[in-house]
Design a protein that fits this description.
By secondary structure, the protein is mainly α. The chain has seven helices and no strands.
Length: 152
């Protein structure tokens, strides 16, 4: 499978899992939310891993001041999304496994961790939407090529 196909498949699956994870606000069982969250966390790690070369090349170019403002904005938003989603994943793990949290911090009250989890989740929603809009031309061109290939 081509790298582009892998990236798109992971992106689509990640998007579906991300949307499903918000079902907790509509009565989804906590265990299902945790399983979907862990799958989304794994898929987001795969997404970042597959796109690491692009991110590293942008990082090198941005430090050399070779990037235009639009590309720096895209890079900054991707980095901010990665940090926000990582905080959401880490706090979700800490909420799901309070024994680990207690051993690490001695905390028994999960309210602050829960608040950080919810805030980072909603921030991630906004950033995912911005991220998707930033890449909408690439997404359109991918599906245009696939549609053309199917017609031939």
């Amino acid at each position: 499978m081509k790298n582009v196909n892998k990236r798109m498949m992971i992106t689509i699956l990640l998007s579906i899992l991300f949307i499903l994870s918000f079902g907790i606000s509509m009565g989804m069982p906590v265990v299902a939310h945790m399983i979907i969250g862990m799958m989304a966390g794994g898929m987001s790690f795969a997404h970042v891993w597959i796109n690491r070369k692009r991110m590293l090349s942008m990082l090198k170019a941005s430090t050399a001041k070779k990037l235009n403002t639009k590309t720096k904005w895209k890079y900054g938003m991707s980095l901010f999304l990665t940090v926000s989603w990582s905080i959401c994943i880490i706090t979700g793990i800490l909420i799901g496994f309070p024994v680990i949290l207690y051993q690490l911090t001695g905390m028994t009250n999960l309210f602050m961790i829960f608040a950080i989890h919810v805030l980072s989740a909603f921030l991630s929603v906004v950033l995912v939407i911005v991220h998707a809009v930033q890449h909408v031309t690439a997404i359109k061109s991918y599906f245009k090529v696939k549609k053309t290939a199917l017609l031939v």
